[in-house]
Amino acid sequence: MSIIIQAGHESSSSEALMEWLYSRGLKKPILSNVQQLSGKKIADILDKIISKKQSTDNSKLTESIVVDFLLANIDQNDWGWADSKNLTALSHWQSFEPNTRFVLIFDHPKKILSQFAENELTRSKVSDLMEGWLSYHSTMLNFFDTHSDKCLLLEGDFSIKHVVKTKDLFKSLSSSLVLKSGWQVEDNSAKDSSLIQSSSDIAHEMMVEEIVKNYPEVVNVFNLLLNKANLKGSKIIYKTKRPDIDTLVAAITDITNLKTDLDHKSHTIEHLQEECKTADVLKSENERLTAALFGAQEAIDKLAAEKTAIEKKVNDFEQVDKKNEELALENNALIAALHTLQESIERKTTDNQSAEINDKKLLMINQTLEQENAWLVEELHNTQNLLEKKYASVKPLITDEAAQSNKNMQASGTVSIYHTPESRVKNDFPYRLGATLVKTKTMKDMVSLPMTVAREYHDYLQIKKELESLPPLDKESDLLRAEKTKAHLSYRVGNTVTQSIKSPKKMVRLPINIGKEILSFKK
Fold first, then answer.
1. Residue 372 CA neighbour count, 13 Å, CB half
2. Given the DSSP bridges, would you call strands 100-106 and 78-82 parallel, antiparallel or unpaired?
3. Cα dihedral angle (167, 168, 173, 179), rounded to 10 degrees?
4. Helix, strand, coil proportions of the chain in percent (round to 5)?
């Protein structure tokens, strides 16, 4: 059983980090048996009791509250909670339950000043805030020095942005703690790049940092926290020549007025510009997606019908080798797709020939289409004949070669080329289907779409068993590359289509869902 008690100043990201732990499998504590107290309420009560002068009655009261809370949660394997007042009672929890593990969260002292509007800060208020920050984190350092083997000291904001490193640290803290893996991997470079700070924001940030430097004890404690932290992202604060704190506070007030004026003037213009851009993008994407989705829907319907017909025929060949059955099904699917496509092209050619042509430009376009259709019909006949001949000639060899290849791989332990996380995602059917749909832009591509999708499905079946025999993707050492590959537009569109096929309701919303994926990708 793992009990995680987390403490962090009110200005830190302690609560946000605990929510992340809950999302990965850590359980919230159950209310105590007798008085139905939550973890936060117990932290508040213990803080009040311990802050008073110690007495026998106080010790007994503290013990009864803690024991009652532990008994209520005795059946839970991994649980915990976070509260700023937990810091006062950490030593008591350690004495009652030696297996308890502690997570101490700190952040840059400038963060406590950033929570207030510039016109709310005065010299006395800044001094009070800095004094409170110093007292809290000095206590945190003392506890960490005494129990470093059972503690993690983390910089809150940095830990949330680098969840992979944070998860590894929690594994080292408690071997029994199991946290689930998340599908999303943070992209720190993209999170803040879209927000461009104004000159007034930058000036405000600099002013706050200069104010912190006027409190050397706060700077020393923060630097000590960085030196001892298990995970950190900030840099050590170096002493420099600093302006007077009254000057800094006054400067922040002046910046507020400037920032308000600039924001008011630019807000209306930016709002109108963004609405125009959004309307243009949505219009363009909607037109392109509508054309692509009609072709994709027809291809999917044809493939579904062909699959049903092939499955009925499989029952007639019970004694045929399993590998030969798969090859026969795939070959039949390709031939059926070619016949269907040929009939469609011939009907289109007949319609084009019977239409009235009054404009020279329209005549040239129809002539071009007739030439392309004739070429496609000829190519389809040739392709069908070659496939049938090829299948007849290599069918006996395929089985022998496949069997020999499997024996050689099993004997030598050779690793497939699809073993890399990136290539495994790209060779999965959702990525193949999405890449085919994304590349469909011309009329020629639309006509050949069913055949292209059938070919991709055929190629996928050739390596499907090999991909399924590999270890789970989330256990790969280079999982980050696989997650980045899943962020490609091809995978996102293909995955949306394959998931929607399973449900009639999702099929109705398929065009909208694909449109959302494309807009999300472009952002």
1. 14
2. unpaired
3. 40
4. 75, 5, 20
Report the amino acid identity of residue 214: N
Q: Which two tokens stand for residue 303?
A: 């493939």
- Write the CB contacts of 433 (distance below 8 Å, at least 6 apart in sequence): 453, 456, 493, 494, 497, 498
Q: What SS3 state is found at 151?
A: strand
Query: Three-state SS for 105?
Result: strand
Residue type (1 letter), 122 = T
Residue 347: its H or E element: helix 322-354
Phi, psi of 82 (to 5 degrees): -125, 140
CA distance 95 to 421: 46
Residue 451, pLDDT > 60, answer yes
What three-state secondary structure class fits 153?
Answer: strand
User: What CA–CA distance (Å, rounded) separates 302 from 45?
Assistant: 68
Evaluate if pTM is beyond 0.70. no
73's tokens: 């949660």
The torsion of the CA quartet 465, 468, 470, 475, rounded to 10 degrees, works out to 170
The residue count of the chain comes to 523
| Band (419; pLDDT cuts 50, 70, 90) | low
Cross-strand partners of 82: 6
Contacts for 465-469: CB closer than 8 Å, 24+ residues apart: 466/416, 466/418, 467/418, 467/424, 467/427, 467/428
- To which H or E segment does residue 410 belong? helix 360-412
CA distances 39 to 5, 18, 83, 207, 326, Å, are 9, 13, 8, 38, 59
For residue 361, CA distances in Å to 114, 370, 372, 443, 444 come to 66, 14, 17, 17, 19
Sheet strand arrangement including 78-82: 78-82, 2-8, 100-106, 151-155
Cβ burial, residue 199 (10 Å; 0-12/13-18/19+): exposed
Contact between residue 496 and residue 517 where contact means Cβ atoms under 8 Å apart? yes
Residue written as token pair 């995978």: 491
170-225 per-position pLDDT tens digit: 888 887 787 887 644 444 433 443 344 555 566 667 777 888 888 889 999 999 99
